[in-house]
Amino acid sequence: MTSYMNKLLTAFTVAALSLPLSAAAGTYTLTSPGTDQHAWVNGGKFEIGRFSLQSHVGDILDLNTSVTLVDQGWGGQDPTNGVYVGLFAGETALYTLHVAGADHVWKTDYYSLTSNPGDFAGMNAALDNAQWNAGVTVRMYTDAWDYAGWELHTRNVSLAMTSGVLPAVPEPSSYGMMLGGLTLLGAVAWRRRARTMS
Fold this sequence. Notes:
By secondary structure, the protein is an alpha+beta fold. It has 2 domains: 23-167, Sandwich (Jelly Rolls); 170-198. It is 29% helix and 41% strand. It has 4 helices and 8 strands. It has helices at residues 3-17, 39-42, 117-128, 172-197; strands at residues 26-38, 44-53, 59-70, 82-89, 92-101, 107-112, 136-144, 151-164. Strands 1-8-3-6 form a 4-stranded antiparallel sheet. Strands 2-7-4-5 form a 4-stranded antiparallel sheet, with helices on one face. Strand 4 (82-89) and strand 5 form a beta hairpin.
């Protein structure tokens, strides 16, 4: 290889190594065989599980759920009779996601935070403003309607969450300086090559 190529490869290596690296991501998983709620026995909120977060968690990068559920009661049906994931500081709900709604037939609902940019931004904004001394948790729970005839049954419940630090996006001026530097390197190499040929 020519010395020019060695210098160019060295420059690219230094540039690549100077890019910001994201912090190690944390992964949380939760599974449950299911829940059974009857309006006259245990209506209302029923917690399936929770994750406790540390203040250095960064952002919630991904959150995916899968729930098979049915409203088996003889009353009406409403999709808000379903499963939720909430961000809590102590017992205060900071942000709530409706991830699955029941009707009178068994069905499986999937939810992905990255497919819902409004929820992604809202959840992470709430996390950024959380009062950490109260204890911050992510909870998955059912909210079965507490009216006569309403039931909520879930099966094969899963929640997977990834947290970490979103990589910083370089400012346009950084790209401009990098392109300017690469242009100068190319010009110097072109002039040097032109001199050696003549």
